[in-house]
Amino acid sequence: MTSYRPTLHRFPDDTSGRFQVLREFLLRWHGLDTGAVGRTVDRVGEAEARVDKPLPLAVREWIVLLDDLARIDGWKYVLRDSWGLKQVPNCAAFSLLTAGEGDRHWGPLFRDLAREDPPVREFVPDYERDEQRFKRGRQVASRVSTWALEFIVDYLHLSRSLQLERRASKPTLERLCDRSPSPVVASRIGATELFEFEGGLMHAEPDGPEIYRLRCYAPRAQTDAFDSDATHAFGQQIDAMLGVIRL
User: Fold this and answer.
1) What distance in Å separates the CA atoms of residue 7 and residue 184, rounded to the nearest whole number?
2) Element (DSSP H or E) covering residue 65
3) What is the pTM (predicted TM-score) of this model?
4) 42 and 135 share a domain?
5) Which domain of life is it from (predicted)?
6) Which domain covers residue 109, as residue numbers?
7) How far apart are CA 245 and CA 97, in angstroms?
C-alpha cells in the first residue's frame, strides 16, 4: 500500500507546470496515470473548429486531460459532470464543462482567449427570460488551471475517498503546521485552503467567524471506505493533528 504524499503545495508559476501537478495529484490520489502535459488530441482541433477560434494553452491542456480520463475510464472517479468543449448557449464563452443536469457551464469568455490561462466564469440559466438561455454569472477562478484543481478537489466529497468532517478554529489551523505530530503542508490555491499530510489532506472551508469546517480525506486506494477500523484510525490521526482529545 503506497501512501499519498503532499503534492499540491508545489503549484508552479507556469501553466504547463500547474497541469502537470494536477496530473501528479490524480496519479497519487486516484491511481490514475493520465500521462504528461505538452500533447494534443483530436478533441482540441474539433473544439477549435466548433467555436472557430484558437484555444489558449490552459484550455488545450484541460481538453487533453479530459480526453485522457475518458481513455483510461477514470472520469467517474474524478468528475460528475458532462462534456462541454463548445460555445456556451447564447453566450460569448467557451464551455470547459457542463453540469450533469445541464443547468450550468464553466469557462472563459471569448474575449479572454488571447490569454494563456484565462479566468473562468460560471454561466447559469436565465430564468427571468428563458430557462433554455444562459447568462453570465460570477468569476469563479482567476485561471483555468486554478479552477481545474479547485473543481477536482471540491469533488472529492463525491469520490470513493474515505471522508470525515471536523471543525476547527482559525488559531488551531494556524498552529497546525508547527505543532502537528505528523508533517503538514499548508497551501492556498485560488480560494481553496488545503492542508496536506502523509496519507491525506484537509480542505478548510469558512463556517462562521473564526471557524472552519474541515473536509478530511484519505485516498480509497489506501483504505477501505467501508472499513470502520480504517475510518477510526484516520479519525484518530486527524484529531492528533488538531490537538483534539476524544474520550
Assistant:
1) 12
2) helix 57-71
3) 0.91
4) yes
5) Bacteria
6) 8-152
7) 43
